[in-house]
User: Fold these one by one.
Assistant:
Number 1:
Amino acid sequence: MTTHPRSALSGIKVLDLSRVLAGPWCTQMLADLGADVVKVERPLAGDDTRQWGPPFLRDDDGEVTQQASYYTSCNRNKRSITIDMATPGGQQLIRRMAAEADVLVENFKVGGLRQYGLDYESLREINPRLVYCSVTGFGQTGPYAERAGYDLMVQAMSGLMSITGHADGEPGGGPLKVGVAVIDVLTGLYAANAVQAALHARNATGEGQHIDMALLDVAMAIQCNQASGYLASGKAPTRAGNQHPSLTPYQDFPSADGNVLLAIGNDGQFARFCSAVDHPEWSADERFATNRNRVANRQALLDLMTPVMKTRTTGEWVALFEDKAVPCGPINTLADAFEDPQVKARGLRIDLPRWGDAPAPDHVSSIPGVANPIRMSGTPVTYRNASPALGQHTDEVLLEMGFGAEEIARLKAEKIV
């Protein structure tokens, strides 16, 4: 496989033994940055998310296929090879791949790969330079280490759901999960950072290392200001809907035709807001002159603001504040967001071709997706191809490894690949 000559991770080989979201998000990030990522999938079944639908992709004739769009969200720029790692031949094949890899990413249960001789200690013996990243729900140590961990469970256990949603007693009150599997995604991002740091360290030491990533660790870490506030005060924060615990006004308001969001982060912005809505006396009021006082007198301020915010449409408010450096915006649907002129100008929707000829029955030549947000001037993110069909590159990868046509045929006949 050829990669973009100016890609940041060009020449780095990644063996991807992960599935679902956190691990694949990590390896997709590495692939976007130019690494050659080979994804190992189960024969016939593949990654679990290939079946996580609807929605499913449509083929070139507009017919619904058997591949869920979930899979395509986190597996672009990769090659797919099918290997049955439960067989001795499959284990030997993966060990041979690991011997030549720079990075291995896996998200099996703790100890799950040891029985196959594919754990870090075993593979380090054949490739001391290997950066081996394990992604689990609760990490390699601790009383929960052997538990399976899922994003929703970890959102609940970490306290994130206790600060997400409307307060008890309000309409729709109660704990809520975030609308996407945010812990999985952020664990993938942390893992990609860790992998690149380990590769940099390897340049100095010549040795790889084991990276232990846990969803629970990430969920605790990303609560940043809320967690720090609890540790400083001893008081656990509670749900406050779209309000900010340390800023006001920083929330949504009903407008004449829907809802509008204000994100006022300092006293200057508040003063400009007050002037624009013809209530300069609010910013002069001692109760509201500083953010600290506004938070202390939050309800009194909201009682004044809410009727005023209902007097104009969302679009009118956005237009009014646009040249006044007052952060204000609509609450879009995804459909609205993809039609937003800024989103279009930044090219955040991408349509990628399938990598060569996908095997039947998956005749999908182009797959839509969301662009990588990283913009680098010298070594830009590259988009080579959309997510692969199951096992699409099995022959290609085996040929690169030195297997001949007869050997590949034997591996297939023995159901190793």
Note: Residues 250-332 form a domain with the formyl-coa transferase, domain 3 fold (CATH 3.30.1540.10).
Number 2:
Amino acid sequence: MAFAKGTFGYDLDFLKQYHHDLIVLDDDDSGAAVIILPAYQGRVMTSTTDGMNGQSFGWVNQELIASRKTVEHMNAFGGEERVWLGPEGGQFSVYFKKGADFTFDNWFVPAAFDTEAFDVISVSQSQARFKKAMRLENYSGNTFDLEIDRTISLWDNKGIENLLGMVIPQGIKAVGFETVNGLTNTGTNAWDKKYGMLSIWILCMMNASDKTNVAIPYKQGDASILGKIVTDDYFGKVPAERLQAANGLILFKADANHRSKIGISPLRAMPLAVSYDATNQVLTVTQFSLQEGITDYVNSLWQIQEEPFAGDAVNAYNDGPINGSQMGRFYEIESSSPAAALQPGETMIHRNAVIHFTGDKESLNNISMKLLGVAVDAITL
């Protein structure tokens, strides 16, 4: 049976051609399912609320995967949830070699979390666990021996309800999964502000429509204490019609028509981001670890930094055309752990959960009101 493009079954059949060891977690009762690829670092490639014919939510770079090739700087295979490590730029970056200029020609995603497989530790119908030992060197020339321990769990509806503290309305279909990502210092050097620190960086690439918008709540308060609400100039300042921040809610257009990125500092961040695809009536919730009172987050700006631990806790990215070409029709929600000040043998844990709801607009409104205090029509620019 041939499945329609854009369905879970279509993406599953495609990925099976290139990855015979792929893992599917599924819930027989609800039709919820996710696809995980060990070869892509235990990456959740996509998910659905409704079985093989249900909509596929993760962006999959079929062209790159089908080429069976790897490229030099970064292999953008796609995937609804993957683990990277920060910082990306600065004197403690693990993406630039010591002394290199901070330009794209010198930027390389380390192979350990770009092209190398993670080891499969265990698999059941609802959970898969992976590990990967790595050695990385930062821009300052310091070496990091580490291990990532990553567990992916598919929830049933009761698990989703417990996480969000709400009852899923009748007629709504849902898929929810959580990743628990452990970062362990397996070396002999302490990680600190002088030596350099890493962070767990989770990136979620999801299919965009022309009517997709992101809503991120933020802590309101005095800018002299909490700083600016949002960083909006990663790739040039985001146009006003694409970004608004007022009354505790940031709205960001995620239609894959304009390349842009925003960031929220740990002083302003809350452990929640929501997006709404009005074209397909999909409400997506991302919830993640956020430790109250901890404000040291790695700074990923591509420059030597005066404040290398004044980075973002939450980011959103919208893809778009650049120089006549485009990576894909997707947007990203990103969450980060604090800078990992780990002694040898110590571990930091960062959790990230993604939940998709599909169904009638009135029921999706009820969920949005519960989580954000506004209806889905208010998540619109």
Note: The radius of gyration is 20 Å.
Number 3:
Amino acid sequence: MTSDRRWVRVRRGGVYLLGALVSGVATVLALPLLCIPRFARLWANWHRGRAGRLLGAPFASRPALHATGRRAWADPVTGRTSRALLWLPVNAITGVAFGLPALLCVGNIVVAVIATPLWWAFGLEDRPRLFIDVAVTGWATAVTLGPLQILLLTALAYVGFPPIARAHARICLVVLSDSTDEQLAERVAVLTRTRADVLDAHGAELRRIERDLHDGTQARLVAIAMRLAVARQAFSDNPQDEQFVEELLRDAHEGTEEAMTELREVIRSVYPPILADRGLDGALTAVTTGCGVPTRLDIDDLERVSPAVEAVVYFAVAEALTNVTKHSQATAAGVRVSRTADRLSVLITDNGTGGADDRQGTGIAGIRRRVLALDGTVEVDSPAGGPTAITVELPCGW
């Protein structure tokens, strides 16, 4: 992991832990209100989504249920109300236990930052203290203990914030995780939705191909046929008018080349011929070489991969790099393709401005639809200010 990405994780972990502390205190203060099943589910679902985003777990958050009456209290179908109510004391305890050390760490870093140059501005009785009980009474203490406290606590945050935040997030997901039946039902719902998306996309793709062939290639072939018919008739009526016949044949020849070009474009949009000609390695090399941003490509030995998986990887990388060129303002990008057992992983990164969101029509939604159609997953880590990392995982076992 690069240093920049590590510091991003430290920052996210610190923000998560401080949020957990605030959430734990708020749970205690608003306990009577949160004991109402609907609010408990909303509160639990917010925490579940927050923990899922930190861990990069897709589908971690879910819409809150809107049950009323006796069903709201018992919730026999899903069992989520009981887990949401259980999460209240767990969150109050773990939020304070995990968040308070983070607050002390950040707070003492701030104290040291202020005390080092400004210790003299405080009164004798109010002098700031470093390392808990060492009063700053002179420049020697300030310039030695102040930076040392900043360095030690920053190192502690660097090492401790990410794993502690992940530990709290895992506790949250464990407490709020679905039963086996609920996971199966949710999985069926996801597959049903992705199947509908695939059918819609397939229908739209067929309509596009039909439109391209009808309006482009077919129209050109009809024009070619008409020119050849006119040329044939002109040659039959007046064999001496060679110039007119030659012009018609030249137009027919040019139209044939244009029709062949359009037909190749249609075929390329269905299944890129470069995949069949050069394989996934060669196809991705061509995509990264042609990207408007300098892009590094790393591909492991993938062994045998199905054509469907290759096509999804190709289109995902091509679409992601197109987004990088158009929207990210990046100066460098990278593509990493690896395989572990029966899972193929693709990591696309850039050092741009971040903020990628599939709800804004940046093309990530199309990547997600293609990947979900093969029962894969897509994770997008793109905080405002960057960097961006898109991780695609696909099953590729035989």
Note: Strands lie at 129-130, 134-135, 295-299, 333-340, 343-350, 377-381, 388-395.
